[in-house]
Design goal:
The chain is built from 9 helices and 5 strands; from the N terminus they run βαβαααβαβαααβα. It has about 200 residues and is of the alpha/beta class. The chain has a 5-stranded parallel sheet with strand order 2-3-1-4-5. Helix 2 (about 30-40) crosses helix 3 (about 45-55), helix 4 (about 60-70) packs parallel to helix 5 (about 90-100) and helix 6 packs across helix 7 (about 145-160). The longest helix is centred in the middle third of the chain and has 17 residues, at about 115-135. The structure holds adenosine monophosphate (AMP).
């Protein structure tokens, strides 16, 4: 099972991906988490990525494609994986298909989390306030100004991938504004229909 969780920043992709990892035992691949780990480790990739990420822009395709290419051959990806925050450009989507093709694998579903973008900024502000209240550090790109730039990058560079996946009949739309459990239930319904061969109902 190879899934792509698709949607703007703060749509809840990370939360759902984590749950899918726990429930189905598939690996959770978040390029954002991997880049933040590279920054924390002080690697060359991390140094290059930090300025770009702090500005709310996209890290170059070759960097993130390289990170994913290295990761999907790991043992924990054999059963499947859920991609969270990748692909973010059409070039990344095509590179992903090419690398999976070579391994006789392919993306199963692209789960599009439909959200009200006007409400996302408030969600980000809430997330930052919660983190601060817990005494945790707030991500430097979770400020309202940088979040606006991340949203713009999504609308201008990431959303244009959708026709590509529509052409492959892989998009499954879900209501991302529901509470976490409601969103999870919609994803589970897609996956259980896949097992019983009814997934075309979601095309
Ligand atoms: P995220 O945690 O998915 O919101 O990602 C945080 C930041 O990491 C993004 O705003 C980008 O700067 C960078 N990033 C993560 N994934 C990608 C990707 N697939 N392509 C380009 N940049 C990425």
């Amino acid at each position: 099972m190879i899934l792509v969780l698709f949607g703007p920043p703060a749509a809840g992709k990370g939360t759902q991906a984590k749950r899918l990892h726990e429930k189905y035992g598939i690996a959770h691949l978040s390029t954002g988490d991997m880049l933040r780990a590279a920054i924390a480790a002080g690697t060359e990739v991390g140094r290059k990525a930090k300025t770009i990420m702090d500005a709310g822009a996209l890290v170059p395709d070759d960097v993130v494609v390289g990170i994913i290419a290295d990761r999907i051959d790991d043992k924990d990806c054999a059963k499947g994986f859920v991609l969270d925050g990748f692909p973010r450009t059409l070039a990344q989507a095509k590179a992903l298909d090419a690398m999976l093709d070579g391994k006789k694998r392919s993306v199963g579903h692209v789960i599009l989390m439909e959200v009200d973008q006007a409400k996302l900024t408030a969600r980000v502000e809430g997330r930052a306030a919660d983190a601060r209240a817990r005494g945790e550090e707030v991500r430097p790109d979770d400020t309202p100004e940088t979040f606006k730039k991340r949203l713009k990058a999504y609308n201008e560079q990431t959303a244009p991938i959708l026709p590509y996946y529509e052409g492959q009949e892989k998009i499954r739309r879900i209501d991302g504004m529901q509470p976490i459990e409601g969103v999870a239930a919609q994803i589970d319904a897609i996956l259980s229909d896949e097992k019983s061969g009814k997934s075309r109902a979601y095309l």
